[in-house]
Design a protein that fits this description.
Number of strands: 14
Strand order of the largest sheet: 2-3-1-9-8-10
Oligomer: single chain
Radius of gyration: 21 Å
Largest sheet: 6 strands, antiparallel
Number of helices: 8
Structural class: alpha+beta
Distance between the termini: 25 Å
Helix content: 25-40%
Strand content: 25-35%
């Protein structure tokens, strides 16, 4: 979890406004205590509060391309970043080992189609200075796992504010709305564009595939496995119920598999934290003696 804050087409002196932006971004520091970054480009300000998970020693944000014409700030994890990097046609210089940098370079090749290529949870904002006026693209993951809000000032409608939480916007904006999940915002369009259009939204579509429990199990294991992508210790939150118990069981099994195998045997090399931190830690919240807490302790 990181915090992002961006101002697009600020109406005044952007350099002078930088300090105020840092104050507003600081309201998000509980989301990302490892690093704070800020870039002022023309009349745009991009800030980032980082929680280091992947590319710990090199993934400082905001991210920029080779000539700094494209600037990106991201809160999220891109599980298929390696696949995205392999499908790039042009040579790119990666400045970090962050999974999020794949968005930056893929955008320069695929434009907004990059969003449909992302497998992950994310909220991000990007400024493309190669055109005049500069272009703002912002996006949120299909179901809204990561939070994102967009704000405006009525007397300066050309200016847009984007932030991970409301607290960074409510002092500056007189109009704030939640950024809808499964959508991106394009300043050329001037509105939200829905990119997530699953076929199960069609009420007339009747499923015909028979139940396949092996497929269900395999899909769940795969979903847990890709979310273990990190370079730092991680844990699970137990409620004592079936769902969290299943996830914890799968995670513990995956950690043992990775810790006992050679590097070449590991299906996903991004799960290297399990090799260095082979014990899964669990946490739970509840009242003393509560049945859920007792069940969670048994699972642990």
């Amino acid at each position: 979890m990181c915090g992002i804050f961006a101002v697009y087409q600020y109406w005044g002196d952007a350099e002078a406004y930088r300090q105020r932006c840092l104050e507003l971004s600081k309201k998000l520091r509980h989301r990302g205590p490892d690093w704070s970054g800020c870039i002022v480009a023309d009349n745009h300000i991009f800030c980032h509060e980082r929680l280091a998970i992947v590319g710990v020693d090199s993934g400082a944000q905001p991210l920029t391309n080779e000539d700094e014409s494209v600037i990106l700030t991201v809160n999220g994890e891109i599980y298929n970043h390696s696949d995205i990097e392999r499908c790039l046609k042009q040579p790119h210089t990666f400045k970090t080992r962050s999974d999020c940098e794949s968005i930056l370079h893929a955008y320069t090749e695929f434009d907004t189609d990059v969003i449909n290529k992302l497998d992950g949870m994310f909220a991000w904002a990007l400024i493309d200075r190669r055109s005049e006026p500069a272009r703002l693209i912002a996006a949120r993951d299909p179901i809204g796992i990561t939070t994102l809000y967009i704000g405006r000032v009525s007397v300066h409608p050309e200016t847009l504010y984007i932030a991970s939480e409301l607290k960074s916007l409510n002092e500056e904006c007189d109009f704030i709305e939640e950024f809808p999940p499964g959508c991106y915002f394009d300043s050329r369009v001037g509105d939200f564009v829905r990119y997530f259009k699953p076929d199960w939204w069609d009420g007339d579509r009747i499923p015909t595939s028979p139940v396949d429990y092996k497929l269900l199990r395999g899909s769940l294991v795969k979903a847990v496995r890709k979310r273990m992508m990190c370079e730092v210790p991680f844990g699970v939150l137990l409620s004592g119920g079936l769902d969290s118990s299943l996830i914890a069981s799968i995670a513990a099994r995956e950690i043992r598999r990775i810790a006992q195998s050679s590097v070449s045997d590991v299906e996903d090399v991004d799960n290297r934290a399990a090799r260095h931190y082979p014990r899964l830690h669990s946490f739970s919240i509840g009242l003393p003696g509560a049945p859920d807490l007792i069940a969670a302790r048994k699972v642990a």
